[in-house]
Amino acid sequence: MSEVENAVPPRLQEIVEEFGEVEGQDKLELLLEYSEKMPPLPDWLSKETNMEQVHECMTPVFVHAERENGGMVFYFDVPPESPTVRGYAAILGEGLRGVPPEQIVSIPTDFYLKMGLHKVLSQQRLRGITAILAYLKRLAREKLQGNF
Questions:
Q1: How many other CB atoms are found less than 10 A from the CB of residue 108?
Q2: Cβ neighbours of residue 50 closer than 8 Å, sequence gap 6 or more
Q3: What pLDDT band is residue 4 in, cutting at 50, 70 and 90?
Q4: Which of 36, 53, 64, 103 sits at 20 to 30 Å (Cα–Cα) from 79?
Q5: pLDDT for 68-98, tens place per residue?
Q6: Number of folded domains in the chain?
Q7: pTM for the model
Q8: Which range of residues forms the domain containing residue 113?
Q9: Residues 6+ apart with CB under 8 A from 61
């Protein structure tokens, strides 16, 4: 197992491998499937009061992080009109659910290369998805520093 795979949490690694098994446009189709699986926000969570915007992403991406049993849970609000970014956020939400913050901060920023997304997404989209992961890592670091 490579160093990158060691740094990627198990469920996220399964998703990476799932994407690695498909080619070309099928990667986009799989990303759209994840976009459609993004869970709705819980009733107690409001974008206006409880969520932070990832300003580095051109798509309006809002995220809220919670601690749960030593791990983290991320809730996302991404418009359906942005299915690729929404799909990537859904992947992170599912792949990082319950993962300890120490493990989140060690995920390689470019782990998506193993998914082959760089072959089917524009540089602008790739910068956006990199910004989302960077933001989640920042939230995880805040938890580790007790600022959460």
A1: 15
A2: 44, 64
A3: very low
A4: 103
A5: 888 999 999 999 999 999 999 999 999 999 9
A6: 1
A7: 0.90
A8: 3-144
A9: 53, 54, 76, 77, 78, 85, 89, 128, 132
Cα 31 from Cα 29, distance rounded (Å): 5
| Rounded Cα gap, residues 91 and 50, in angstroms | 21
Rounded to the nearest 10 degrees, the angle between the axes of helix 83-95 and helix 10-20 is: 140
Q: Which tokens go with 37? A: 């699986």
pLDDT at 8 over 50: yes
| Domain CATH number, residue 105 | 3.90.1010.10
Question: Virtual CA dihedral for 75, 79, 81, 87, nearest 10 degrees?
Answer: -10
Q: Please tell me the distance from the alpha carbon of residue 76 to that of residue 125, in angstroms, as a whole number.
A: 17
Of 89, 114, 74, 98, the residue nearest 36 (C-alpha): 89
Nearest CA among 145, 142, 120 for reference residue 63: 142
Place of tokens 């107690």: 44
Distance of alpha carbon 60 from alpha carbon 82, whole angstroms: 9
Coil, helix or strand for 2?
coil
